[in-house]
Write a structure and sequence with these properties.
It contains 12 helices and 25 strands. Helix content is about 25%, strand content about 25%. The longest helix is centred in the last third of the chain and has 20 residues, at about 300-320. It is of the alpha/beta class. The model has no long low-confidence stretch (mean pLDDT about 95). The strands form 7 sheets. It has a 5-stranded parallel sheet with strand order 3-2-1-7-18. The protein folds into 3 domains: about 5-110 and about 240-320, FAD/NAD(P)-binding domain, CATH 3.50.50; about 125-240, FAD/NAD(P)-binding domain, CATH 3.50.50; about 335-454, FAD/NAD(P)-binding domain, CATH 3.50.50.60. The chain is globular and about 70 Å long.
């Protein structure tokens, strides 16, 4: 008797699950994907670079087309919007169609931009950035030739979209509620990013909260209203982060956690619902440093979780033991503003205190390769360690080209629970054209060791 696996969502996590299950299940088993949009398997992270003109087209951001998935035996249905889940009946309601029964269900509905309940926020010309369709809308808006672009928020998306707009010659203002930009990094590093933004011609309004949006007679945005005055705007881009798109799950009684993330185990199975799995930006994830659940949407996690869910479902239906588990994350992220690179992993000082640690913070200046080589770039590295256990808790980098990826050493150390002493003694690659004799992360770790002795 054939079985049916239904996947809601056709991007990174959903199509990874569908492809993995399709490869392992017998041909007479069905794998159905419901995607409400028109794109599959695309890189949302690449949208700012498409808007900037560095990426030629939306097609360049698509890893695998719908036709390619169908050729692999997946019943992919575009424009198919799931409207309800009935776990007891094992059915998914689909707009304009009969309910679809399932043997196993995967929820991979992704995330959606945060749109605070502010006056005028539903006006024309105010957009979030999450999908390729959103990217096309922004491009169409820029073709109109706006006089004033305002980006609300200076996180990863806000920073990247601001760079894209100013690179295309638009008068661009960034409004950030926190006193410094990129509040996910330490203030001293945020100040470096702010300086780079101003040097590029961006008008930065830090420590300013948005209170609403003024609309003209046609309903289009004309200004951003703040607690520090009004800013002219005929295009507003929201860079306030995202929350899990999990209303389907919540309405069906499935457990949700931070920012609405669906609660799953390390096999991506929804807690209390053995036939339902979830993966990607719609789920809550274990923070390996604190042991707490967090919502951290990234394509890297979505692909890994999709692999795990695909393995779990296949093993479940085939009567085998699953081979994979998703252990959680250490909050590693990277971006850039023009030539300034920015990366971070683990906890900052405030996060560490809130998690119950007694943090020691060390900050150092170093170069990306031996200082006697021609034109070395500089970087600032911050390391955070726990005083009692000496465990590395986090690291952050802001610097020149070839600086930011050094964060991967710290991310690996966090995943294995290393102390700063362990990090100092790591056997890392060295030659003058690539690094100083001490890796930048090791220089910061040595500074943390000295701080712990003080």
């Amino acid at each position: 008797m054939s079985r049916r696996v239904v996947v809601i969502g056709g991007d990174a996590a959903g199509m990874t699950v569908a492809s993995a299950v399709r490869r392992r299940l017998p041909d007479d088993d069905e794998v159905v994907v419901l995607e409400r949009g028109t794109w599959t398997s695309y890189s949302a992270c690449g949208i700012p670079y498409w808007v900037a003109g560095e990426v030629e087209s939306a097609d360049a951001l698509v890893a695998r087309t719908p036709d390619a998935h169908r050729k692999n035996g997946i019943d992919l249905r575009l424009g198919a919007e799931a409207t309800a889940i009935d776990p007891a009946a094992r059915t998914v309601s689909v707009a304009g169609s009969e309910p679809l029964t399932y043997d196993r269900l995967v929820i991979a509905t992704g995330a959606e931009p945060i749109r605070p309940d502010l006056p005028g926020i539903d006006g024309d010309g105010i957009h979030g950035v999450q999908s390729l369709d959103d990217g096309q809308v922004i491009l169409d808006e820029l073709e109109r030739g706006p006089r004033h672009v305002v980006v609300v928020g200076s996180g990863y998306i806000g920073l990247e979209m601001a760079e894209a707009c100013v690179a295309r010659g638009f008068d661009t203002t960034v409004v950030e509620k926190s006193p410094t930009v990129m509040p996910i990094i330490e203030a001293a590093l945020g100040d470096q990013v702010a300086d780079a933004m101003r040097a590029r011609g961006i008008h930065l309004r830090a420590g300013v909260g948005v209170t609403g949006f003024a609309l003209d007679d046609s309903g289009r945005v004309s200004a951003v209203e703040t607690d520090d005055g009004t800013i002219a705007a005929d295009l507003v881009i929201l860079g306030l982060g995202v929350s899990a798109r999990s209303s389907l799950a919540a309405d069906a009684g499935l457990p949700t956690g931070p920012k609405g993330g669906i609660v799953v185990d390390d096999r991506q199975r929804v807690d209390g619902f053995p036939e339902i799995f979830a993966a990607g930006d719609c789920v809550a994830t274990l923070d390996r440093v604190t042991g707490e659940l967090i919502h951290i949407p990234l394509g890297t996690h979505a692909n890994k979780q999709g692999m795990v869910a695909g393995d779990s479902i296949s093993a479940d239906l085939l009567g085998e033991e699953p081979r994979l588990a998703f252990p959680g994350v250490v909050q590693t992220a990277i971006t850039k503003f023009c030539s300034l690179e920015i990366s971070r992993t683990g906890l900052g000082e405030r996060q560490a205190r809130e998690a119950g640690f007694d943090p020691v913070v060390a900050s150092i200046e170093t170069t990306n390769f031996a200082g006697y080589m021609p034109h070395p770039g500089t970087m600032t590295v911050i390391a955070v360690a726990d005083r009692s256990s000496r465990r590395l808790l986090g690291a952050q980098i802001v610097g020149a080209e070839d600086a930011a990826l050094r964060i991967d050493v710290a991310a690996t150390a966090l995943a294995t629970g290393m102390t700063v002493d362990d990090v100092v003694m790591l056997d890392l690659a060295y030659a003058p054209p690539f690094s100083s004799v001490w890796s930048p992360i090791q220089v910061a770790a040595r500074a943390a060791v000295k701080a712990l002795a003080g």
